Amino acid sequence: MIWSEIIGTAIGGFAGYLYYKKIGCPSGACPITSNRYLSILYGAALGYMIGASF
User: Fold this and answer.
1) pTM score, two decimals?
2) Residue of 30, 26, 32 whose CA lies nearest to 46
3) Inter-axis angle of helices 36-52 and 2-22, nearest 10
4) Smaller CB count within 10 Å for the chain: N or C?
């Protein structure tokens, strides 16, 4: 069970970073996507929740 949570968190964090890098918010007005750390954190949290459901 714990492996699905770890893998989900890692994939979610990576996906959050990719979202920041590829889509992002260049103007800086978006509170989540304009900051790479927040984007990674939210992606990791979402990945953890999805991984924990398995």
Assistant:
1) 0.86
2) 32
3) 150
4) N
Q: DSSP letters of the chain? A: -HHHHHHHHHHHHHHHHHHHHHT--TTS--TTTTSHHHHHHHHHHHHHHHHHT-
* Residue pair 44/12 in contact by the 8 Å Cβ criterion: yes
Instruction: For residue range 4-49, list pLDDT tens digits in order.
Output: 999 999 999 999 999 999 988 878 788 888 889 999 999 999 999 9
Q: Confidence class of residue 51 from pLDDT cuts 50, 70 and 90? A: very high
Query: Do residues 12 and 45 make contact, with C-beta atoms less than 8 angstroms apart?
Result: yes
